[in-house]
């Protein structure tokens, strides 16, 4: 096995890639932007030229967002209801606003996480 083939089969460092992905930066260099609109991945990094067109995030970021936000809001609902007993409309409106805001905030970051994970594990042609 040649040195180039060996380097191509080894995994890249996962933790730094995921941190860069959560920051919505290129998983390779950490400088270029990963997304060019809310959820559209750039075809390549503007700084290092890393080809990002191989990513296949599909529905993974949405599932991760629902999982995380759902767990946080489930605990928040329990704590608010048990300790404060707010009016049902107040509770529903407050938690609805928090749910939508948290989901919109987390969705691009989860997409960055999935793309960075795929890059680090050399999945789908990375």
Strand content: under 5%
Number of strands: 0
Order of helices and strands: HHHH
Which percent bin holds the helix content?
A: 55-70%
**What's the Cα radius of gyration?**
19 Å
Describe this protein's structure.
The model has no long low-confidence stretch (mean pLDDT 93). The chain is built from 4 helices and no strands. Helix content is 59%, strand content 0%. The chain has helices spanning 3-9, 14-22, 60-84, 88-120. The chain is mostly helical and 126 residues long.
Keywords:
126 residues, mainly alpha, 0% strand
Topology record:
Blueprint: H1 3-9, H2 14-22, H3 60-84, H4 88-120
Short description:
The protein has 126 residues and is mostly helical. It has four helices and no strands. The mean pLDDT is 93.
């Amino acid at each position: 096995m040649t040195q180039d083939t060996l380097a191509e089969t080894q995994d890249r460092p996962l933790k730094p890639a995921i941190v860069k992905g959560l920051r919505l930066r290129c998983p390779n260099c950490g400088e270029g932007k990963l997304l060019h609109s809310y959820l559209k991945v750039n075809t390549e990094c503007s700084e290092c030229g890393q080809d990002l067109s191989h990513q296949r995030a599909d529905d993974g970021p949405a599932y991760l967002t629902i999982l995380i936000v759902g767990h946080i809001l489930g605990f928040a609902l329990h704590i608010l209801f048990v300790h404060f007993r707010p009016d049902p409309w107040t509770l529903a409106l407050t938690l609805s606003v928090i749910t939508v805001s948290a989901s919109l905030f987390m969705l691009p970051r989860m997409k960055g996480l999935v793309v960075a994970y795929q890059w680090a594990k050399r999945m789908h042609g990375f």
